[in-house]
Design a protein that fits this description.
two-stranded antiparallel ribbon, 7 strands, alpha/beta, 51% helix
Length: 449
């Protein structure tokens, strides 16, 4: 990813803003990457491996005993908790002959985040699978590609009949000799129409939905064939799709339509699949766990309920900081530790803290305690700007519960506060605390104390 490559360590204050961007995910082989897996409270990597039927010690997948087990896993967590980087790490570890052939689908890079449905995602999955097969060098027999290519060509003919009848422009797809590249040409054309005319996009989706049982059967046959070829070539045991970026879609309605309304179609695709689950859809967890597994991915716990500092987590954040910003750009490690506590264990919130502190670093040429205090004051005021009286009443309840080391039961009011990052969540969701940045606002201090 080009943006990832231009993401370099800051040695001057004017380079800090680029180094603390939180909109560019970091891959495991990037110099910025820091592994927080062992400081997330109750969360452990091995949980994900076990759900995927992978041996946590050897990271091997036994395809013989798991022939009928196809995992559908939702990794749920707050924005900025580091889900994308965690999935990149998992993909790198599991992508090997003894385990999976990982196919990562970043929806915000391949589809229209303003207009997306599950049919679009499925087309994108197939396209990404073909692209990865082409790169791997695994050879597929012509008849299996021809069968899939013919099926798609027939569906496009159906779409074009509707378009022609309505006087619109037809979807131009020319089927060539069945090869991986010719099929990629078809998916590219279909995707171009999904990204282009909304009218044509809807017609393509409708035709695919109307033929979905046959569509799913074709895809499942193809996936099983590829799994067999991967094993035969000692490339991997099975395919694992990793679908990330749902939370970047433009609206809650889009996300709900994909995950909740289309879940029965998602279930019909027989492939190991990980979806990231946006925080807004956490209330739907009970519905999803009836036929899938939902794993909570929490923020990093840097403070216990009783106020005790988790030193190991703080040290990991210091490592995270100095990988991005040269330590000479801070007046002391104490300032870094103070900034870490304001971040509350959220990677995104911590990067925002550093960004705002840097606004005042030009006064001395470094981020010192004074620059940090000024940055926090500004950030706190902006963060608390839209907190309501009802929110403040709930924050008071949360503060009292944490002081008494009591758990907070689920409630829709907490869901709203989590979505707005006013409250942060740890462990398995039973430990919540007010965002430390909010605690620094005059509004919070006056009404909650």
């Amino acid at each position: 990813m080009a943006a990832n490559q231009s993401y370099k360590k800051a040695y001057k204050t004017e380079e800090i803003d680029n180094a603390v961007r939180f909109d560019v995910p970091i891959s495991p082989d990037h110099e910025f990457y820091t592994d927080f897996a062992d400081v997330r409270g109750d969360f452990e990597d091995r949980t994900i491996y076990k759900v995927l039927n992978v041996n946590p010690k050897t990271l091997e997948f036994n395809s013989e005993i798991n022939q009928g087990n196809k995992t559908l896993l939702f990794l749920a967590g707050m924005r900025g908790s580091g889900k994308t980087s965690e999935l990149a790490k998992i993909a790198k570890k599991l992508h090997k002959p003894e385990c999976f052939f990982c196919v990562v689908c970043n929806l915000d890079e391949g589809l229209d985040v303003n207009d997306m449905e599950y049919m679009d995602i499925l087309i994108f999955q197939i396209e990404r699978l073909f692209q990865e097969i082409e790169k791997s060098g695994v050879k597929l027999e012509t008849p299996i590609i021809e069968s899939l290519q013919q099926w798609f060509s027939q569906r496009i003919e159906e779409v074009n009949k509707v378009i022609k009848r309505e006087g619109g422009f037809e979807v131009e797809v020319k089927a060539g000799t069945p090869t991986i590249l010719s099929f990629l040409g078809i998916t590219a054309k279909i995707k171009a129409n999904l990204l282009g005319s909304k009218e044509n996009a809807q017609k393509i989706r409708t035709v695919l939905k109307n033929n979905f049982s046959d569509f799913a059967k074709k895809i499942n046959e193809f996936i099983e064939y590829v799994n067999m070829m991967l094993r035969r070539n000692h490339t991997a045991k099975e395919i694992l799709f990793i679908i990330d970026g749902l939370e970047k879609t433009a609206s809650l309605d889009i996300r709900k339509k994909i995950v909740i309304e289309e879940i029965n179609r998602i279930r019909q695709i027989r492939a190991n699949t990980i979806f990231t689950l946006p925080i807004e859809l956490m209330p739907e967890t009970l519905k999803l766990t009836a036929f899938s597994t939902v794993v909570s991915f929490p923020c990093i716990k840097i403070k216990e309920k009783n106020g005790a500092i988790v030193e190991q987590a703080v040290e990991r954040f210091i490592e995270f900081t100095y990988k991005r910003i040269d330590e000479k750009l801070f007046d002391s490690v104490d300032t870094v530790k103070k900034a870490i506590m304001y971040g509350g264990g959220s990677l995104r919130e911590y990067l925002r803290v550093l960004q705002y502190a840097n606004l005042y670093a030009d006064e001395t040429g470094i981020i010192d305690s004074n620059a940090l205090s000024k940055g926090i004051k500004k950030l706190a005021a902006q963060t608390a700007q839209y907190i309501t009286q009802v929110d403040l009443d709930n924050l008071k309840v949360l503060k009292q519960a944490n002081e008494q080391e009591k758990q907070i039961p689920y409630g829709i009011q907490w869901q709203d506060l989590l979505e707005k990052l006013i409250v942060l969540e740890y462990n398995d969701g039973t430990y919540k605390r007010v965002n430390p940045i909010v605690e620094e606002s005059e509004l919070y201090k006056y009404h909650v104390g």
